[in-house]
Design a protein that fits this description.
The protein is α/β, with parallel strands linked by helices. The chain folds into two domains: 150 residues, Rossmann fold, CATH 3.40.50; 120 residues, Orthogonal Bundle (N-(1-d-carboxylethyl)-l-norvaline Dehydrogenase, domain 2), CATH 1.10.1040. The protein has twelve helices and seven strands. The chain has a five-stranded mixed β-sheet, sandwiched between helices. Strands 1-2 form a two-stranded parallel ribbon. A hairpin with an 8-residue loop joins β5 and β6. α9 crosses α10. The model has no long low-confidence stretch (mean pLDDT 96). The structure holds nicotinamide-adenine-dinucleotide. Nicotinamide-adenine-dinucleotide binds next to β5.
Length: 283
């Protein structure tokens, strides 16, 4: 795997960053030979060197449309005849930055989730003009490197993951604003409740298993409740400054700003242990 970043400082950090993460992965038994994996990572000093001969290119420049357009154009001019390009963008549809490219049929979105080496899902979202063969290449590459790709069949703002997260966040902010529960109790409802199931089954399978007659019976019995909840939230509002300050005060009382980096490291160690557990349960 070859890596390029426009910043020399970023290029200088790559191998140390990767080595540190590989050591952690080895520590929980997720990989055997960290040195062998590290030896396959090569940092290049220019974009052409990274793209030449590649089967697949992952673009991960900052989330700004003009920059995505410019970098996609540079990549397009260097692209071999069969290379496919996926963008990491969290929310910009591929059609917003690939329309004018000569080989736009080989560009799409391949949205990873942070931290991508521990959370396997990748949202593959083609533009209307992406060749189905390019979609298949991206899906196959992602599977081959141990990720779990899903296909977003048509372009939609926020793809699938952030739309699902957005619905949950909308209700979490509203419940906090209206004083129904503290931020920590809302978090606790997910980490000690919904989230436990969600690490191995999704919302459809959850309801399918939650009624003796499966999804149909669940929908018949509880559909009216959810319809009523949906109807009670019909006017979306931006997250207000006062509400953000309220959430921030609670979160910083729990974890001071200087403790966030350590907490991120803790999160990654917990995710590694969970990934190791899930791997041990694979059938
Ligand atoms: N951070 C996340 O949690 C996350 C998760 C999923 C997707 N993404 C997406 O990934 C992309 C990158 O996000 P990030 O958080 O890693 O950003 P970042 O700012 O941390 O890193 C972007 C890197 O791109 C480099 N860069 C800037 N211009 C460049 C150019 N012209 N050529 C080559 N390199 C260039 C920068 O030097 C920087 O190292 C965004 O589209 C973002 O939406 C981020």
């Amino acid at each position: 795997m070859r890596v390029f970043d426009a910043s020399q400082a970023a290029r200088d950090r790559v191998l140390d960053d990767v080595a540190g993460r590989l050591a952690d992965l080895k520590g929980v038994g997720l990989i055997d030979d960290a040195d062998a994996i590290l030896s396959r990572v090569e940092v290049c000093d220019d974009m052409a060197a990274v793209i030449e001969g590649a089967k697949y290119v992952q673009e991960s420049v900052p989330e700004r449309v003009p920059l995505k357009q410019e970098v996609s154009r540079q990549i397009s001019e260097l692209l071999g005849p069969e290379t496919v390009v996926g963008s990491s963008t969290s929310g910009i549809p591929a059609s917003a930055f690939t329309e004018d490219l000569q080989n736009r049929d080989r560009f799409l979105v391949a949205h990873p989730v942070n931290p991508p080496y521990l959370v396997p899902v990748v949202e593959v979202a083609p533009a209307p003009w992406t060749d189905p063969a390019s979609v298949e290449t991206a899906m196959t590459v992602m599977r081959d490197v141990g990720q779990s790709p899903i296909l977003v069949r048509r372009e939609i703002e926020g793809f699938i993951l952030n739309r699902l997260q957005g619905v949950l966040l909308r209700e979490a902010w509203a419940l906090l604003e209206e004083g129904y529960a503290s931020a920590d109790d809302i978090d606790k409802t997910v980490r000690e409740g919904l989230g436990l199931r969600w690490s191995f089954i999704g919302p459809f399978e959850t309801i399918d298993l939650n009624a003796p007659g499966g999804v149909r019976e669940y929908a018949e019995v509880l559909g009216p409740l959810y319809h009523s909840i949906d109807a009670s939230r019909s006017d979306p509002e931006p997250w207000s400054e006062a509400l953000i300050a309220k959430a921030e005060a609670e979160m910083r009382a729990k974890i001071p700003a200087e403790g966030l980096e350590e907490r991120r490291n803790w999160r990654d160690r917990r995710l590694m242990a969970l990934a190791a557990h899930k791997k041990s349960q694979e059938r």
